[in-house]
Amino acid sequence: MGKGMICAPQPEAVEVGAAVLERGGNAFDAAIACAFAQGVVDNLMCGIGGFGFAQVYSAADGVHTSYDFMATAPAATRAGMWEDLLEGETRDGFGFILRGRVNDVGYRSVAVPPMLRGYHAIHARFGRLPWADVVAPAGALAEGGYTVTPFVRNYWVTPERMGRVEIIDRIAHREAARSLYFDATGQPHAVGTKVRNPDLARTLATIGREGIEAFFSGSIADRIDADFRANDGLLSRADLSACRATERPVLRGSYRGWDVAVPAPPASGLMLLQMLGTLERFDLAALGFNSPDYIALLAEVMKRAQVDKERLIGDPDFAPVPHGPFVDAAAHDAAAAAIRRGERAVVPRIAPKAAESADTTHLSVVDREGNIVSMTHTLGMQSGVVTPGLGFMYNAAMAMFDPRPGRAMSLAPGKKRVSSMAPSILFRDGRPAMVIGAPGGSNIPMGILQVILNVVDFGMSIVEAVDAPRVAATGNVLDASHRIPARTCDALRARGHDVARSAQSYVVARPHAILVEGNRLTGAADPSAGGMALLA
Predict the structure, then answer these.
(1) Whole-model pTM?
(2) Which of 149, 360, 378, 387 is catalytic?
(3) pLDDT (tens digit per residue) in 469-481
């Protein structure tokens, strides 16, 4: 395999993972060390108060599996408890807007965070280095300080105008949060500022020394429980003690000779398989890369996948998720025929008023032995809640649950949040060939899809494939990068498409990928986040 490689949006975290590989750790050690570090240096995107999904491949024994450590609704949740507060739904289906934003910020917005369960499950089964050794680098970053990058600072202060609470108001929500993000003058830390977080350093030191049970049933759990009880939160010590990571089988499909492995629900790997299956019925190269014909086709395929996701994908432990509409050849044939007839899908929305959220991060790792981790993890959105003395932000994952009863994503105690995450591994001739995933809210499957198409159908290198401009249709508006030419957008509008051309050059998720060609590894980090791919 040659040297190992790690790719992620945060250079400091990538360097942590690479150093672990160089010290003799494997891909699993490196992935967990990198993930912990991401929670320090980009702590509004992820952290131990969050959740995620990972796909792993162990080369020595051929074990290929995935780990679901998605946030769950606390036991105090009641079906329909917020139904009368419903004001609207985000344009792309990434969440529900309630009166008072009770599901979006504050103590009642926090779902049970199983992030550490997932990290530990992967490391305990596949890791080589001691647990304390993979936690320690993140603790050192928290103690010594991380540097505020342009991407991180811009994320803090740029208005989202989504109908949700703005990021700047989230981080100012409570004093324990304000102290992490604002300087002595009350301004958000400037680019280049070194920010220390000694509280998080102590929390990580406890987790490294005592293990994750300190968080779920020990001293840290006690502090979390007391804080939430004092502030009318839903989360409790009993919720923490009961939460688990779930191992789930990998789902498999194919596309033009490549085998595609994706995570099962409540992740959205099925969407990726559905879109690839339908697109395989078309000659994409003949349409022309990012031509109006090509983009119009992508839009229809994406909308159909989004409709099926919102209608069918829920927590499989509550109700079976039917795979047929996503993977059956007959379903792909029918969708392709409908598109050829000119039929256009409509994505149902309640009072559409907002765009999507990209408050997530990803890492891809391949080591010299051929072990692989593709992991996407997140806070979903930020609750604004930091328990004094612990140093980490909690998720606001309750915003993703549907407040209306009787639906796939409806609120229920113990129910897992559905996610657009789709950390993927592609194979050729039985050998790993591509490791890919992305942050980006509902746009995650759309971004991953286009990188795969760019490599397979258009012959791009992985760097070109990740760098190329992308589009998305997760609702009834076609979102386009600013690098999609105006004339192309105009041609699509002339066909009746509602096109929103972004002012940003890089939109529609932030894919991070590694291409494996024999012993050669090539990595690509989406340019928007300032990340990197690093050989170790």
Answers:
(1) 0.95
(2) 360
(3) 999 999 999 999 9
